[in-house]
Design a protein that fits this description.
Length: about 600
């Protein structure tokens, strides 16, 4: 017995329920003599009769209405082609297993196939399913599925039909930020910036600024070495196919089961319309359900950042987080009498974004390495690197004013296309702009490493300029002090130079001895009004000061000379000579 279109696929769009032309067949169907409505479909209409009906109907319409009708028909045809393509992909038999499972970061037991479209349930929230184009999600089994057109499936559904599109340097076609009010696009500045970013060259293997690695590297230690050395040189790192991508569909049920993000979770929603009008106040209060249900709202572009979750770095890359290690290994000798769950719980976070969202150039003010990997959807992240003029000085002034005119002339720039399953790691203070052409679910976090502390110093130096900093940094100082206090107990191979180079070591000494110098403007005027802030009464601060003072004595460096020495170290790529501390810190290890 033949099944109707609705029986074959209960999620069939409305425009497929009518005028469906069944292919002719020579087989005799049991239902051939039955009326069409008995089978669940309308009787097929010949193409000639359709054209004749359209001609008669359009004669009655004015030119504007006629054009609008034809545009709507074209949009329906695009959706029909997209749905048929997705249906064919879902009908294919599952792939045997991931070819990278036995060799890469991916778990050996991991085999990923697209999840079927979810049936409707009694729960209206959980049954709200948003289908992403098949080409917008990277399949771990078939990287060739990555298509370039990310716009067609969104026009007329998630964004207005008249939304402009742009082609990026790597060939991707995306929508431009668009919210129409009284016939005008109120996101015109975001649109212009997105066009600038689209013209930036795409990052490729062999790039001077970005290290491209494969998640299928068999030796995990080699992967860690490559990541550490690249970050220390100020380069970003992208590990392709490093983690499992998510399903094709984004639902509240997936957010709840995978990340514990509930529909009623209160969140601060960034609204691009408010951001265009009041850049300092772009938030609207709401719950996560509001953002998910608004994906198909053509009158908004919104996103949520910093949803705390318990999913951090992939287990194989956890050794990169040497700041966390410093906490664990110093808590006995340097007790922390106050509650400090934030240092652990606030680092991993998830972000959820609707399509067409632009985040202008920015940097993380706490001076940590940042990692990021999308689970659903593609992100185009433009990385900005200050050009070094002839005098060798990095143009920090250009960095300070990057956010207003968005002038990219003083920067070398590359755009990295981050697919689901790719892992992007940025060194401290990395300037970047983000564009989410389609709805994106991603998560990431931050970590410290000894080799990048010079970049931490440079990043925090930017933040002391006039202006308010919204990120509390007391935990940053405490972590740096514990990293300094841990140096006497580092393995001997590290003390002999595998990680302690001149630039990061001197930067750590400077940040330990003068913590107030690197505090953000808002923190200097609030939490540090007292003569003795709580942070400076930490036992780790006392130990860290003693350790770095001993190191400077061993190197015959006066603490007052540190700022000038760091200012003269202008090359971001050179870590400086290896520092051999020998046994100068042996007096601190007598308790071990």
């Amino acid at each position: 017995m033949q099944k109707s279109a609705q029986e074959v696929n209960p999620k069939l769009p409305d425009f497929l329920r009518y005028n469906c032309h069944q292919p002719e067949t020579t087989q005799t169907s049991p239902n051939a003599a039955r009326p069409a409505h008995k089978i669940g479909m309308t009787r097929a209409v010949s193409p000639e009769r359709k054209r004749e009906y359209n001609r008669r109907y359009e004669r009655k319409l004015p030119p504007e209405a006629k054009q609008k009708r034809r545009d709507a028909q074209a949009a329906c045809k695009r959706k029909l082609r997209q749905h048929r393509s997705t249906a064919r992909a879902l009908a294919e038999p599952p792939q045997p297993a991931n070819t990278l499972a036995a060799t890469g970061i991916l778990s050996p037991a991991f085999s990923w196939t697209p999840s079927p479209v979810q049936d409707k349930t009694a729960d209206g929230i959980h049954s709200q399913t948003h289908n992403f184009p098949q080409h917008a999600v990277a399949s771990a089994n078939d990287p060739g599925m990555r298509g370039l057109d990310l716009a067609s499936g969104m026009l007329g559904t998630q964004v207005p039909l008249e939304t402009e599109v742009v082609t990026w340097d790597d060939g991707h076609i995306t929508i431009l930020p668009t919210i129409m009010r009284d016939g005008q696009n109120i996101l015109i500045e975001d649109l212009r910036l997105t066009k600038k970013l689209a013209a930036v060259p795409a990052s490729k293997s062999g790039s001077k600024f970005v290290t491209h690695l494969n998640g299928a590297i068999t030796e995990n230690e080699l992967l860690l070495i490559e990541i550490r050395s690249s970050l220390a040189a100020g380069k970003c790192v992208i590990v392709h196919e490093a983690v499992r991508p998510g399903p094709l569909n984004l639902t509240m049920e997936y957010l709840e089961k995978r990340y514990g993000i509930h529909a009623t979770m209160p969140v601060d929603i960034h609204d691009m319309e408010l951001q265009a009008k009041h850049p300092a106040q772009p938030h609207v209060p709401g719950v996560m359900r509001d953002l998910i249900l608004g994906i198909n709202n053509q009158n908004e572009h919104r996103y949520v950042l910093d949803c705390p979750i318990a999913v951090g770095l992939p287990p194989e890359l956890v050794p990169l987080d040497e700041g966390q290690m410093a906490w664990h290994r110093t808590i006995k000798d340097c007790p922390w009498p106050w509650p400090w769950p934030g240092i652990h719980l606030s680092t991993p976070c998830a972000s959820v974004s609707q399509g067409g969202v632009l985040i202008p150039p920015c940097h993380d003010s706490k001076g940590q390495n940042a990692y990021f990997f999308p689970v659903i959807g593609i992100q185009l992240r433009t990385l900005l690197f200050p050009k070094i003029p002839h005098d060798g000085k990095v143009p920090f002034e250009a960095t300070k004013f990057l956010c207003s005119p968005h002038d990219l002339d003083d920067y070398d720039a590359e755009t990295v296309t981050v697919y689901p399953g790719d892992l992007l790691i940025q060194p401290p203070g990395q300037l970047h702009a983000e564009y989410n052409p389609n709805p994106v679910l991603a998560h990431g976090g931050h970590f410290f490493t000894y080799g990048t502390l010079y970049h931490t110093h440079s990043s925090r130096s930017l933040e002391v300029t006039p202006g308010n900093n919204s990120q509390a940094q007391e935990c940053t100082d405490e972590t740096l002090w514990r990293m300094a206090a841990l140096i006497p107990w580092l393995p001997p191979d590290k003390l002999l130079g595998k990680c302690l180079h001149a630039k990061p070591l001197l930067a750590l000494c400077s940040m330990v001895l003068k913590p107030r110098k690197y505090m953000g403007q808002s923190l200097v005027t609030t939490s540090h009004k007292k003569k003795q802030p709580i942070a400076l009464r930490s036992s780790s601060y006392t130990r860290a000061c003693a350790v770095v003072t001993k190191i400077l004595q061993h190197l015959d460096i006066c603490p007052q000379d540190l700022p000038a020495m760091l200012k003269d170290l202008t090359s971001f790529e050179d870590m400086g000579e290896v520092i051999d501390l020998g046994r100068c810190l042996s007096e601190f290890t007598h308790t071990v």
